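Please go through this protein, sequence plus structure tokens, and consider how the sequence yields the tokens. Keep your notes short.
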Amino acid sequence: MRYVVILLLVANAVYFTWNLLSDSPGPRLARRLPPIPESVRTLVTLREIREADKQPADMSEVEAITQLEPPGAGPALGCLTLGPFLAAADLQQAANDLDSRGLDAQPYEDEESVEVGYWIYLPPMEWEAAKKITAMLDEKGDEEYYIGKENLVALGAFDTMDRAKIRFEQVRKYGLEPLLEPRYKTRTVHWLELETTGNDRQVMAAVLEEFPDIRLQNAACRAIATQDAIN
């Protein structure tokens, strides 16, 4: 039995050596894959696209083209705006002046925040803390306060910084640490808008002389775009 095992080992060694040194490797089994369905799209490399359509295959070239002509790029429609007009009568006068010069300006309204003074206050706090502070103010005969949203304690509003500083120092003498900040309000303003052409600025400069408080600036078209959508 031992001789049989040795004989098998020798035969395997000979077969292994013959396959290793043979110039023509033995036949291998090949696995046949099923064909790709027609509905499945195959991957195509950028190099293959270039060879087929003469397109640039280098990514730097593609990026350069994208920067020059990004998707959806087109001529931007720019406008000039004239304003703001606080009174509708002034807006109409300027619009009539532009119309007499051959310029069709579209009006639109906007809102802006303007500084109207200063105010002093204590930041929001717990209700009990706010009541304690107001009780102290009542004891000092100080009635220039009110409790606002989230228990904010307002200590006065002023038109000028000088008056605000006097009140600020008075409150600090009470042992409080108030904040002094600008006060703003929102107002409605009127604008005129027209599409830009080469001579618009020269024509509108004459209108600016009649209204020294208004300004001329570049802006994205909004009133004209809205008017076109309506039409």
Residues 80-113+187-230 form a domain with the Alpha-Beta Plaits fold (CATH 3.30.70). The longest helix spans residues 2-21. Helices lie at 2-21, 46-53, 59-68, 88-100, 127-139, 161-173, 200-210, 223-230.
